[in-house]
Amino acid sequence: MQNHILKYIIRGEDETLDFKQEISNASKIAKTMSAFANTKGGTLIVGIRDNKTIAGIRSEDEKYMLDLASKFYCKPQLDIEIEEWEAEGKVILECKVPESNKKPVLAKGDDNKWMAYIRVKDKTLLASKIVVDVLKRNSNKRGTLIKYSDEERYLLNYLNNNPKITLNQYRKMHKLSKYKASKIIVNLLSTGILKSHFTEDSEYFSLN
Fold first, then answer.
1. What is the structure's pLDDT at 59?
2. How far apart are CA 130 and CA 154, in angstroms?
């Protein structure tokens, strides 16, 4: 077994590493590619079970499925690198997905809808509208000009005294529309003043 593959297995799944026992659905794997491309890039190892044992790929079709996902199920297309390695007499695939400089990268679902995903620890999560707006803003080379109004001051003052806040909490406390509250948070995230945090069912913000 290649030494770096063994290190991957020992390390386990995290923000930039994901194991797949097999690939049978290009749409599903495109979500992981989108998440890597929208975060820090990452590596997919195909042919590894969840318990870190070697399964090996079933056929060359899985290599084709990776290529299909990156070119036809990701928008914009991703330039991935695929290498084959032998481990315990079985073939596994190492697929490197680069971080994109054209974010957000969208993945096409089985319902034909294009959605953006992000990587949080070892999970691939659907990106919220705020995250998508921040990805777009950060891909735009123009800077973000912030004029501190009462709304911004209120939010920053609240976070100086409290560890976190959600979008709904902010808009209700300061009686803002969802659009206005979202725009303020996006501006503060884009300039690095705020930091976003995610779980599978919630999103909140804190001072960076």
1. 78
2. 19
